């Protein structure tokens, strides 16, 4: 499935700096000027290649799945692949998001990052998507910040999930509680569409699962026997998806409707949700065990997955509104499906690149210093770190100080004591 390298990158620590997966960590005051392991400057904490690879591959599957949607009625094989991918691609993405939210607390710096990195992009893109739809084909479409349209549900869900992180960290058994809430939501058709709460609650267990994971869990699932077992398991799931495609309502994979709304009794809805949770969990493991652990050509793109997620939706919606698929009937042929899949994956990669991120950073990562009060505790920490950082920079620049006399280039020797480090 994916080529796996022999060199393993270390998994990230469980400290608070692991709370945001989509942006590089801030430079460390004590290590900012020290050379990294590769000989270069280690100006920032090293990102973990495994998680960047996982995020990019997951977002590529999201884009490919959306590209397949208009042609699933024309090909049973595409329908099977669509159901197979939808069974785990968002759960995998959410599990990783939960894992990187373990350090979230209510400190002002964390809240500020949550507002500028999640809530503000939600407000901007929910408005932009609504205006796009009004201009394209639905002049009556309302602009409602309480009713997420299309892709923006994930941002508001992530905002709610992360805000509740301290609650889940305080519980003795958070995962069973989250699963119970998800099952109750699946039999509650009166929840309504506000904030897409049905989907927020039904997918909550995957986020809480990510909060519960530790680096050693990822080590365990990447054992050789697990990797080998994942191949027949994934193959069996794909065969089952092919068999069940015409027999099953694929809207179960969207997690935005109760069982009653999908035409089944409440108890069948609960059984389906339990089965789908187990299936998604197993396939997420199968996906993660084959994610490369070493640096790949697409590793750096993992830092821009939210850009690809939000931006590709405009092209997907435009293709449906303006009938791009109808203009190319060959797209439903096997060769056309291959071209469509490769094109969608390439689009995902393009939207994760640095030029795209620089262009849209004003909407995705706004600074908004004017909105927030200055955090006195954070400012004090920065002031206390400044002298140490200055001393470290001066020391690493090759200037040695001995007995009050500065000797440059690290070549001085005093009284038989070497001045080099």
What does this protein look like?
This protein is 56% helix and 2% strand. The protein has 421 residues and is mainly alpha-helical. The chain has one domain (45-377). The longest helix is centred in the N-terminal third of the chain and has 29 residues, at 108-136. Mean pLDDT is 82; it is low at 1-44 and 396-421.
Short synopsis of the structure:
The protein is mainly α. Helix content is 56%, strand content 2%.
Tally of separate domains: 1
Secondary structure class reads mainly alpha
* Shape, principal axes of CA atoms: globular
For the termini, the CA-CA separation is 47 Å
Proportion of β residues?
Answer: under 5%
Low-confidence stretches: 1-44, 396-421
Fraction of residues in H or I helices = 55-70%
Tell me the quaternary state: single chain
Q: What's the mean pLDDT score? A: 82
Number of H- or I-type helical stretches: 16
Give, in spatial order, the strands making up the sheet with the most strands.
Answer: 1-2
Major β-sheet profile: 2 strands, antiparallel
Estimated radius of gyration: 25 Å
